[in-house]
C-alpha cells in the first residue's frame, strides 16, 4: 500500500505561498523605485522575471538605461510598509500575477514604441480602492474627460451622456479633476452605475483635496486606481502619464467640453495611439471652452457626437440586425415600437427634456412627439414636471 506523505504536500503549498509573497514584494518594491511607467524596467522584468529584476535593481546589476531611472530610490525598500498602508485604508495592490489584472486592456501600452514617448509602457502594478473587480469593470467602459473650468452647457451634456451610459451598465472612467471629470463621476454615481477614478498620486491622497468626499463615494461604489504607491504626491508629469491609463481602461474617449490647451487632448492622443475611438461634443461657436472640441473635430482627431446613441454606435460592440428587421430600440422597453420607442429612447436616464428639445434627439415633428409623450405617460413609463418630461424609475408607476 502506498503511503501518502501529507507533510510533503503541505510543504509544497507553503512554498507556493512563499513564492507568491516574494513576487508580490518584488512588484511593490519596483513600483516605488520608478514611481510610474518605465519601459526599460518593464523590458527587464519581461526578460528575467520580477524577482530577478528586483535583485538586479537592489544590487545595481543593471544596463546603463536603467541606472539613471533607479538611482534615487533603489535603496528604499518600503514594500512591506506599502502593503500594510494599502490594507489599512481598505485597498489592495493588483499585480500582473493577479486574476484581477486587466491584461487585455493594458496590452496596447506594452506594444507601443517606447522611444516615441517615455510614458508608453504598461504600469508595473495598480493600487486600487473599491469593491468592484478592475477586470470586470473595464470590460465595457467609456472615458469621459474635458475642461476643469466647465460651463453649465458642458456639465449638462456630460451628465446626460455619462448618466445614460452608466444606467445601461457602462463604466465611466475619468480623472476626478474639477469640471467635466467630476460631473462624469457624479452622473454615474447618481444612477448607481460603475465609475473608475484614475489618480496621478497615491490612492490614499485625495486630489484635488476638495474632492475628498467625491473620491470616498467612488471608493465605496466604484474604483479609485493609481499606478503610484501610497503617499505619492501628484506632480505635473504624473498627469500626462495618468492620461494613458484613462484611455487604456476604456472602449473609447469622449470629450464633452475642452479649451484649446485642455489636457483632454492628451488623453485623446493616447486613445488614438491605442486604437480607441475618440469623440467630441460640439459647443457654441462663441464658447472658448469648446474650441478644443471644435479643433479636434476639424482636424479629424475626434468624431462629432451629440447624444448617447451616437457614442454607443462608435464605442460599443458591433450590432447586426436581421434583414428587414429593425429590432427594438436600445434602452427602451421591448414592447415599444414606432414613435413611442423613439421618443422614450430620446429621454435621458436622468434629468428631463421638453418636446422641442426632443426634436434634436429623434427625427419626429413636435406634434408627433407630444402624442407619443401622452401615450407613454398613460402607460406609466414617463412623467412630467416643471422641467419637462422624464423617465420614471423602474418599478414605479
Automatic annotation (TrEMBL):
<feature type="domain" description="Smf/DprA SLOG">
    <location>
        <begin position="93"/>
        <end position="314"/>
    </location>
</feature>
<dbReference type="InterPro" id="IPR057666">
    <property type="entry name" value="DrpA_SLOG"/>
</dbReference>
<dbReference type="Pfam" id="PF02481">
    <property type="entry name" value="DNA_processg_A"/>
</dbReference>
<protein>
    <submittedName>
        <fullName>DNA-processing protein DprA</fullName>
    </submittedName>
</protein>
<comment type="similarity">
    <text>Belongs to the DprA/Smf family.</text>
</comment>
<feature type="domain" description="DprA winged helix">
    <location>
        <begin position="330"/>
        <end position="382"/>
    </location>
</feature>
<dbReference type="InterPro" id="IPR041614">
    <property type="entry name" value="DprA_WH"/>
</dbReference>
<dbReference type="InterPro" id="IPR036388">
    <property type="entry name" value="WH-like_DNA-bd_sf"/>
</dbReference>
<dbReference type="Pfam" id="PF17782">
    <property type="entry name" value="WHD_DprA"/>
</dbReference>
<dbReference type="InterPro" id="IPR003488">
    <property type="entry name" value="DprA"/>
</dbReference>
Amino acid at each position: 500500500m502506498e503511503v501518502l506523505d501529507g507533510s510533503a504536500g503541505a510543504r509544497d503549498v507553503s512554498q507556493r505561498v512563499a513564492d507568491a509573497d516574494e513576487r508580490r514584494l518584488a512588484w511593490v518594491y519596483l513600483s516605488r523605485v520608478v514611481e510610474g511607467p518605465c519601459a526599460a524596467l518593464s523590458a527587464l522584468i519581461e526578460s528575467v522575471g520580477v524577482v530577478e529584476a528586483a535583485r538586479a535593481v537592489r544590487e545595481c546589476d543593471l544596463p546603463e538605461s536603467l541606472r539613471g531611472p533607479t538611482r534615487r530610490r533603489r535603496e528604499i525598500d518600503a514594500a512591506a510598509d506599502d502593503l500594510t498602508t494599502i490594507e489599512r485604508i481598505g485597498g489592495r495592490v493588483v499585480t500582473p500575477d493577479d486574476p484581477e489584472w486587466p491584461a487585455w486592456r493594458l496590452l496596447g501600452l506594452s506594444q507601443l514604441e517606447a522611444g516615441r514617448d517615455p510614458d508608453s509602457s504598461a504600469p508595473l502594478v495598480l493600487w486600487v480602492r473599491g469593491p468592484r473587480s478592475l477586470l470586470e469593470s473595464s470590460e465595457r467602459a467609456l472615458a469621459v474627460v474635458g475642461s476643469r473650468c466647465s460651463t453649465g452647457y458642458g456639465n449638462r451634456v456630460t451628465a446626460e451622456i455619462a448618466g445614460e451610459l452608466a444606467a445601461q451598465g457602462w463604466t465611466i472612467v475619468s480623472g476626478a479633476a474639477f469640471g467635466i471629470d467630476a460631473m462624469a463621476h457624479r452622473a454615474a454615481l447618481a444612477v448607481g452605475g460603475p465609475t473608475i477614478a484614475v489618480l496621478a498620486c497615491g490612492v490614499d491622497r485625495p486630489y484635488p483635496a476638495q474632492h475628498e468626499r467625491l473620491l470616498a463615494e467612488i471608493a465605496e461604489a466604484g474604483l479609485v486606481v493609481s499606478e503610484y504607491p501610497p503617499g505619492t504626491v501628484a506632480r505635473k508629469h504624473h498627469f500626462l502619464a495618468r492620461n494613458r491609463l484613462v484611455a487604456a481602461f476604456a472602449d473609447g474617449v469622449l470629450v464633452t467640453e475642452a479649451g484649446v490647451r485642455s489636457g483632454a487632448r492628451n488623453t485623446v492622443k493616447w486613445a488614438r495611439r491605442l486604437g480607441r475611438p475618440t469623440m467630441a461634443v460640439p459647443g457654441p461657436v462663441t464658447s472658448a471652452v469648446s474650441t478644443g472640441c471644435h479643433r479636434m473635430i476639424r482636424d479629424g482627431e475626434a468624431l462629432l457626437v451629440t447624444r448617447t446613441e451616437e457614442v454607443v454606435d462608435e464605442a460599443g460592440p458591433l450590432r447586426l440586425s436581421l434583414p428587414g428587421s429593425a429590432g427594438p430600440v436600445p434602452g427602451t422597453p421591448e414592447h415599444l415600437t414606432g414613435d413611442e420607442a423613439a421618443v422614450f429612447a430620446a429621454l435621458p436616464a436622468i434629468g428631463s427634456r421638453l418636446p422641442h428639445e426632443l426634436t434634436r434627439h429623434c427625427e419626429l415633428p413636435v406634434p408627433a412627439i407630444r402624442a407619443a409623450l401622452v401615450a407613454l405617460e398613460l402607460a406609466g413609463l414617463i412623467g412630467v414636471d416643471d422641467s419637462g418630461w422624464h423617465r420614471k424609475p423602474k418599478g414605479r408607476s
